[in-house]
Amino acid sequence: MSGPVFLTEPEPARGVARPVAPGIRRIVARNPGPMTYRGTNTYLIDTDDGVVVLDPGPDDAAHVADVLAASGRIAGILVSHGHGDHVGALPALAAATGAPVHAASGAFGPAVGDGDMVGEWTALATPGHAPDHLCFARGDIVFSADHVMSFSSSVVIPPEGDMAAYIAGLRRMLARNDRLLLPGHGPPITEPHAFVAALLAHRLARETAILALVRDAPHTPAAIVATLYVGLDPRLRGAAEASVLAHLVKLRVDGLAMERDGVWTRG
């Protein structure tokens, strides 16, 4: 099954803030891996009041020191969602700066909802990968975080992850006219429409293939992965099974599949 052409980049210089757009720099955290690629992207946004940090990154003292050294005065902190590779460093950064935190979850600071403005940036609620996931848009630039990553498709893990919501979020992004997406992992996406369209088409094709399998015979998520994910990195098998399960849950809600004792059949 073909999919989008994902982007690659060389190993980044650690601790260095590189420009990715006018007034926006990126520091890649020291947490590379199969789920994070080169590491989590922490973005530094220049404003008249100082730097706004988007996604502090993992709980790593060296990364916090890098962000502080590159930022000067930190005027605010934006959070895309509450996964640890994005917010692990938040307590240390907030304590060091006293900067206000803006996130969907009130646990971090003032709750931000869909359409809310934080400075010049508009929050876009994009649940699916995580129920509290936000993108932030200004004009035709969007911080797409883990909703649209450039190195891989996003993992959707039930019950926190919701495939129906994720697909709806991709359609929402596709309806926009953006010229640049700045993802949570991987390099910038300079052709957003084509990239998101390919992501959406791949998800819908995957759903069609999963439905065909369960219509043909009972399947477990593991059996579906073995059939559809040929050549899968063994380290990603658990994530693949979770995404298959997310598709199956969506199909059950749609009345097209049913489950008993972990085995899925046609609805």
Percent strand equals: 15-25%
CATH structural class of the largest domain? Alpha Beta
User: Can you tell me the CATH topology of the largest domain?
Assistant: Metallo-beta-lactamase, Chain A
Radius of gyration: 19 Å
Largest sheet: 6 strands, mixed
Based on the coordinates given, report the CATH architecture of the largest domain. 4-Layer Sandwich
**Cα shape:** elongated
Q: Give the number of helices.
A: 7
- The H/E string reads EEEEHEHHEEEEEHEHHHEE
First and last CA, distance: 24 Å
Number of strands: 13
Number of domain units? 2
Which homologous superfamily in CATH is the superfamily of the largest domain?
Ribonuclease Z/Hydroxyacylglutathione hydrolase-like
For the largest sheet, list the strands in their spatial order: 1-2-3-4-5-6
Structure description:
There is one protein chain. The protein is an alpha+beta fold. The protein has two domains: 18-189, Ribonuclease Z/Hydroxyacylglutathione hydrolase-like (Metallo-beta-lactamase, Chain A, 4-Layer Sandwich), CATH 3.60.15.10; 205-266, Winged helix-like DNA-binding domain superfamily/Winged helix DNA-binding domain (Arc Repressor Mutant, subunit A). It has seven helices and 13 strands. It has helices at residues 61-71, 84-87, 90-97, 163-174, 192-216, 221-228, 237-253, and strands at 18-21, 24-28, 41-47, 50-54, 74-78, 101-102, 117-118, 121-125, 134-138, 141-145, 180-183, 257-260, 263-266. The protein has a six-stranded mixed β-sheet, with helices on one face. β12 (257-260) and β13 (263-266) form a beta hairpin. It starts with 17 loop residues before the first strand and ends with a strand. The model has no long low-confidence stretch (mean pLDDT 96).
